[in-house]
Design goal:
It comes from Paracoccus hibiscisoli. The protein is of the alpha/beta class. It has helices spanning 9-27, 32-39, 43-55, 71-76, 78-83, 86-97, 112-115, 118-121, 134-140, 165-172, 196-207, 246-254, and strands spanning 29-31, 59-62, 65-68, 105-108, 127-131, 146-150, 154-156, 161-163, 176-182, 185-187, 190-193, 209-215, 227-231, 237-241, 258-262. The strands form 4 sheets. The chain has a 7-stranded parallel β-sheet, sandwiched between helices. The chain has a 3-stranded antiparallel β-sheet with strand order 1-3-2. Residues 2-6 and 71-75 have low confidence and may be disordered.
Amino acid sequence: MDIIPSDSRQARRQARRTLIAQAVLSEGQLRIEDLTARFGISLMTAHRDLDDLAARGVLRKARGVVSAAPTSLVEASDLYRDTRQAPQKSAIAALAARQIDAGQAVFLDDSTTVLRMVPHLAALVPLTVITNALTLMGAVKDMRDLTLLGLGGQYHAWCNAFMGPQTTAQISRLRADLAIVSMAAITDGRVFHQSPDMAATKRAMLDAAGRRILLADHTKFTRHALHSMGGVEDFDLVVTDDRTPADQITALRRRGVAVQIAAVEG
């Protein structure tokens, strides 16, 4: 039986759903009854978990069987993204957290790399965090001396975040010291995302911030996405990991962008 962390109920549920998603993505297809035995849960709980994962675009349910969704949907989901390049994302997040000063107001996006900054935020209070990401809201809402401004709008289950015109309108009425975001791909000096609404939301955060930081692990330099939100020159700093090719780092610096490289242990 797979082991589920025993902290809060919400954390256990999230951990279980992540493990279920990983199991199905690894094996391609599983019977729902097999999942109940594997994770020690009731059939009703299994269906609730699978309905959530299906809404996020990770899995598909059909006649007692659950299978992996098409690759494009899976790769866009927050649960899938959180399992990829985990050591690099953690190292990048730790380095990026050093850019925050106590007392600042900071836009943090819905990306899983930014989410990994949460363990470092308690040491930076007082702090105001502005985000559209429900997962991040839940992670910081009880932090002492941290003010949370949650952005609303149209909810999108696949990323567990709010986006759209209402979200960008709220952002436009704010002015933060710093915006820290990540994107799906960096191609020919431009930054892209699969979702036009997500690209617009992140762009709005940049436009409403005094300083802008992009978090990008090495895989972002080999990927492609459809919707551009601007050039790398729009950022004051790019934080990447030590597996990013030297020519990509050189190209960034030639465009006048500061780069910091996070060393990954092991």
